[in-house]
Amino acid sequence: MSLRFELKDLEELTSNVKQVQDDLLEEILQINANTEYLCQFLHRSSSKELFKKNVPVVSYDDVRPYIERVANGEPSNIFTGETITNFFLSSGTSGGKQKIFPVNNKYFENMIFIHALCSSTISKYIDGIGEGKVMAFLNTRPFSKTPSGLPVAPLSTSFAMSDYFKNRPSKCYISPDEVILCVDNRQNMY
Question: Which segments of the protein form a coiled coil according to its record (predicted)?
């Protein structure tokens, strides 16, 4: 994908925000309308109007029981129409306690796209970013697992350990993946 094409994508996304958001909401509702969580509000409909009218704004504590049920082994479809593959672990800085957030492979696909857009924007002003002329410190931590066996890790670790990162089209980091993916920070920082 060329720099020009990626910047064109960014321009399209930012100049047509309402349509992009409406399309994304429609896609999310179609995928998730039959979940246990949304059925109580939408009755298996994917109507945006019904969503806006019936689905309340919630806090983490409101959805935590659903997240915990999946973490403990119940099927993902109680909460999402896509299979949950990982849980991200928050830093715990906002409430003093770490939280877990369910993630599916679509998230990793979106991260690759966002990374490409960011790199394209930066490349417009800094020559050589695609050839590894940028310093970035990527640290990974060991994974833990939920009772159901799904991996739990901070966002950066989950992304760096994913096949999406390992198989990325551009190897734009100077450090070899073996260093980036080393969970012993004393070794990888050496």
Answer: 3-30
Q: Residue 184 has which token pair?
A: 């012993």
Determine the longest span between alpha carbons in the chain, in angstroms.
Answer: 56
Residue of 149, 152, 130 lying closest to 141 (CA atoms) = 152
Q: First vs last Cα of the chain: how many Å apart?
A: 34
pTM of the prediction? 0.76
Helix (H) or strand (E) holding 98: none
Please compute the mean of the pLDDT values over residues 112-125 and round it to a whole number.
76
Same domain, 25 and 114: no
Which single residue is written with the structure tokens 């998230």? Answer: 107
pLDDT, position 170: 62
What CA dihedral angle connects 23, 24, 26 and 32, to 10 degrees? Answer: 160
- The strand pair at 151-153 and 144-145 is best described as antiparallel
Same domain for 89 and 75: yes
